[in-house]
Amino acid sequence: MEQVYRAALEKWGVEAQYDQAIEECAELIAALKHFKRDKIGEEQIISELADVTLMIGQLTFMFGDERVRAAVAQKLEKLAGLLAAP
Predict the structure, then answer these.
(1) Structural Rg of the chain based on CA atoms
(2) Reduced 3-state DSSP string for the chain
(3) CB count, 10 Å around CB of 25?
(4) Is 59 exposed, middle or buried (0-12, 13-18, 19+ CB in 10 A)?
(5) Cβ proximity of 56 and 68 under 8 Å
(6) Angle between helices 42-63 and 14-36 in degrees, nearest 10
(7) How many domains does the chain have?
(8) In terms of residue numbers, what domain contains 29?
(9) What pLDDT was estimated at residue 86?
């Protein structure tokens, strides 16, 4: 995957990848809204999730896997605390 992420950055550049991530997230948002109104099926959601997952992977590569993992661990700890609260 890293090779693909690196190749995408070399081909299109950082700014284009930021824009692509924004676009893919927006498409997922729109798809979820349509799904809630029974206008599309689960397969479209899964397709959009795959696009967003790839962009998250690329952004994680760009910003640093260790940094992102540390932030996720902190967020999970916070969520666990909220779930444990009465």
Answers:
(1) 16
(2) CHHHHHHHHHHHCHHHHHHHHHHHHHHHHHHHHHHHCCCCCHHHHHHHHHHHHHHHHHHHHHHCHHHHHHHHHHHHHHHHHHHHCC
(3) 15
(4) middle
(5) no
(6) 150
(7) 1
(8) 2-84
(9) 87
Q: What is the pLDDT along the chain (86 residues), one digit of tens a residue?
A: 999 999 999 999 999 999 999 999 999 999 999 999 999 999 999 999 999 999 999 999 999 999 999 999 999 999 999 999 98
pTM greater than 0.85: yes
Distance, CA of 9 to CA of 64 (rounded, Å): 14
